[in-house]
Amino acid sequence: MKQRLVLNFSSETVREPITYNLIKQYDVVINILNADVSHGKEGKLLIEMSGPERNVDDALSYLERKKVVVSPVIKTIRFNQDFCIHCGACVSVCYSEAITINRESRRIEFIPENCIACELCIKACPLQLYELNFGNN
User: Fold this and answer.
1) I need a surface site. Which of 3, 8, 11, 99 has the fewest CB within 10 A?
2) How far is Cα 56 from Cα 2, in angstroms, rounded to an integer?
């Protein structure tokens, strides 16, 4: 079983070794795709968690007990790259680094695996080349 999740940590839980405990105690694989965590402040992790279904369920129960807010990533962003003028407006708002500018070609590159579907690119793109996609379509 594999799930993409956003974990929201309070200022209290950010001090605890929660990802370590998930791996060690629940035998799940954690792939951190993006992190914004500061000691003493709230934090966010975008992760892929995988393992046997029972282990993943137990890990999610642990997160609930620790008061970590877990949000599944069920929506994605589609990018119509054919019409892009590579202005960079979307890059400037993408804090997950799913949208970058290739330094050599100076062209926009979209990395869906990094996308957390925050929708900021939809608002930023002057040509409206990004759209929201729900589910696995």
Assistant:
1) 11
2) 8
Whether residue 121 contacts residue 80, with contact meaning beta carbons closer than 8 Å, is answered with no
Question: Each residue of 19-65: pLDDT tens digit?
Answer: 999 999 999 999 987 788 777 788 888 888 999 999 999 999 999 99
Chosen CATH of 75-134 out of 3.90.1150.30, 3.30.70.20, 3.30.465.10, 3.50.50.60: 3.30.70.20
- Do 11 and 30 meet the contact criterion of CB atoms below 8 Å apart? no
Q: 34 in helix, strand or coil?
A: strand
Question: What is the CATH architecture of 2-72?
Answer: 2-Layer Sandwich (3.30)
Query: What's the DSSP call for residue 98?
Result: S
Summarize pLDDT for 2-15 with one digit per residue, the tens: 888 989 998 888 88
Q: What is the pTM of this model?
A: 0.61
